[in-house]
Amino acid sequence: MEVIVEVEQLKKSFGKHTAVKGVSFNIAAGEVFGLLGPNGAGKTTIVRMLTTLLPPDSGRATVCGYDVRRQAARVRQCIGYVPQALSVDGALTGYENMMIFAKLLGLKGKERNKRINDLLQFMQLEDAASRQVCTYSGGMVRRLEIAQAVLHYPRVLFLDEPTVGLDPVARKGVWEILAELRQIYRMAILLTTHYMEEADTVCNRIGILNHGEMVVKGTPAELKAMTGNPGASMDDVFTYFTGNYLDAGGDFRGIRQVRHISRRLG
Amino acid sequence: MESDRFATSAVALVKPAIKTAGIKILIIDILTIVEMELRKLRHEPTVLFTRAVQPVLWLLIFGQAFSRVRAFDTGGVTYQTYMTPGILSQSVMFTAIFFGLSTIWERDMGILQKFLAMPIPRVALVLGKALAAGVRALCQVTIIFLLAAITGIPLHWHPALLLAAAGVVILGAVFFATLSMIIAAIVKTRERFMGIGQLITMPLFFASNALYPISIMPDWLRVVASVNPLSYMVDFLRGALVSGQLTSWQADVGILLVACILATAVGTYLYPRVVT
């Protein structure tokens, strides 16, 4: 099996606070790997290190065989990234958002137009394509963002809390799209979430993080079996391995951001 | 190595786009960022007009009143005419110096993170944004210039000089916009950014030759004014638009260029740190 993301003893501190304390895991090509954990567990920090936004303090991480620190430019060519906040430019139309991204990704001419139109259609956004994005619903924005992130057919797609702040219908829509995209493009997906049941249905493997440490990793079935209770739900699994579900930290900015998203989605 | 494994019927088109590097790509990236900013502007064109109101007030009210005070030699033109290039430059600086606020806003929204995770050279991000600020400034300056001309302020309309003035307006805006992005990368929050922005704009404005010549300043202020890039922008614009004589254009353009290059270098280094 081809390993596409390799993480070894990755560490990151912010001042005195150690956000990620030596985390290791691998992701195979085409696999969906879920990072689960309460707010402040280090999920977003890991994603930011793997997407070259934040240099690790120590340890090693490679994406598509490239080192995230020394070969950052290479890594950026083979990944797609959808950050936690709804991050499309509201002043531009859906089509413009796609076109600017496609140009920056180095797509040209007919190929560029074809990919943009195919993806807009796939995301059911073709009717809204000429509208400014500030008129979109949260689910539509999320679909547009995912479309932008896969324009260059990345080998790994990073999704940070892809469904946070979305209503249940929009959330289901996003998961369906991701499942389908994965089938078509055979890309590996790394997602972070704190919706346990959703992780159960979409992830091939799950890693549970708590206080910056990888507590356990395995397939959903393996994790359930480990609790000794065959009928365990993912919530049970989570409580079993982290001890306390309600012990959710989260820094001020994180909380502010989630509030901000919820507010924008009304 | 990338894709051939997947080249089976339905997914035959699924091929990762590998972007090459090089100076041509760099220029395309810069222009794409400029295009993005201009498209945004096209959807919200009113900002250009609202931003032109304040400078016009300076010219029409302050300028007219002070034209009666003949405190120093304006080179044979009214004070209102003398100060017009100063006000044009000031409006460019005021707009550009708060440009970095959009960087912080984009960071909070997650837009910046997305761009930083894309295969775009950092210098293209910084220069693209700064050039877009330059084009914005140019639109704004054109409006003020036309209003000034309509109200009877005598300005030179020599095409070559106007073109040169446009170039210098862009240079000035690029410098102040990049400076603004540097400040944003250091302070990281809107509140602190606004504080610093307000703290430095007025001193930069007063410690320049925008409203009065450097020759009447006390010695210490002269030193400040002579390292202030705004002075060189005003000097060039005054030469091009008022006197029609570009006596020290080499120094003006040279210093602005060096300032832009330095600011871009520092900005490119610091810009990705906004997200950390």
Automatic annotation (TrEMBL), chain A:
<dbReference type="GO" id="GO:0016887">
    <property type="term" value="F:ATP hydrolysis activity"/>
</dbReference>
<protein>
    <submittedName>
        <fullName>ABC-2 type transport system ATP-binding protein</fullName>
    </submittedName>
</protein>
<keyword id="KW-0067">ATP-binding</keyword>
<dbReference type="InterPro" id="IPR003593">
    <property type="entry name" value="AAA+_ATPase"/>
</dbReference>
<dbReference type="GO" id="GO:0005524">
    <property type="term" value="F:ATP binding"/>
</dbReference>
<keyword id="KW-0547">Nucleotide-binding</keyword>
<dbReference type="InterPro" id="IPR003439">
    <property type="entry name" value="ABC_transporter-like_ATP-bd"/>
</dbReference>
<dbReference type="InterPro" id="IPR027417">
    <property type="entry name" value="P-loop_NTPase"/>
</dbReference>
<dbReference type="Pfam" id="PF00005">
    <property type="entry name" value="ABC_tran"/>
</dbReference>
<feature type="domain" description="ABC transporter">
    <location>
        <begin position="5"/>
        <end position="236"/>
    </location>
</feature>
From TrEMBL, chain B:
<dbReference type="InterPro" id="IPR051784">
    <property type="entry name" value="Nod_factor_ABC_transporter"/>
</dbReference>
<dbReference type="GO" id="GO:0043190">
    <property type="term" value="C:ATP-binding cassette (ABC) transporter complex"/>
</dbReference>
<keyword id="KW-0812">Transmembrane</keyword>
<dbReference type="InterPro" id="IPR013525">
    <property type="entry name" value="ABC2_TM"/>
</dbReference>
<protein>
    <recommendedName>
        <fullName>Transport permease protein</fullName>
    </recommendedName>
</protein>
<feature type="transmembrane region" description="Helical">
    <location>
        <begin position="87"/>
        <end position="105"/>
    </location>
</feature>
<comment type="similarity">
    <text>Belongs to the ABC-2 integral membrane protein family.</text>
</comment>
<dbReference type="InterPro" id="IPR047817">
    <property type="entry name" value="ABC2_TM_bact-type"/>
</dbReference>
<dbReference type="Pfam" id="PF01061">
    <property type="entry name" value="ABC2_membrane"/>
</dbReference>
<feature type="domain" description="ABC transmembrane type-2">
    <location>
        <begin position="46"/>
        <end position="274"/>
    </location>
</feature>
<feature type="transmembrane region" description="Helical">
    <location>
        <begin position="126"/>
        <end position="150"/>
    </location>
</feature>
<feature type="transmembrane region" description="Helical">
    <location>
        <begin position="162"/>
        <end position="186"/>
    </location>
</feature>
<feature type="transmembrane region" description="Helical">
    <location>
        <begin position="253"/>
        <end position="271"/>
    </location>
</feature>
<dbReference type="GO" id="GO:0140359">
    <property type="term" value="F:ABC-type transporter activity"/>
</dbReference>
<keyword id="KW-0472">Membrane</keyword>
<keyword id="KW-1003">Cell membrane</keyword>
<keyword id="KW-0813">Transport</keyword>
<feature type="transmembrane region" description="Helical">
    <location>
        <begin position="48"/>
        <end position="67"/>
    </location>
</feature>
<feature type="transmembrane region" description="Helical">
    <location>
        <begin position="193"/>
        <end position="214"/>
    </location>
</feature>
<keyword id="KW-1133">Transmembrane helix</keyword>
<dbReference type="InterPro" id="IPR000412">
    <property type="entry name" value="ABC_2_transport"/>
</dbReference>
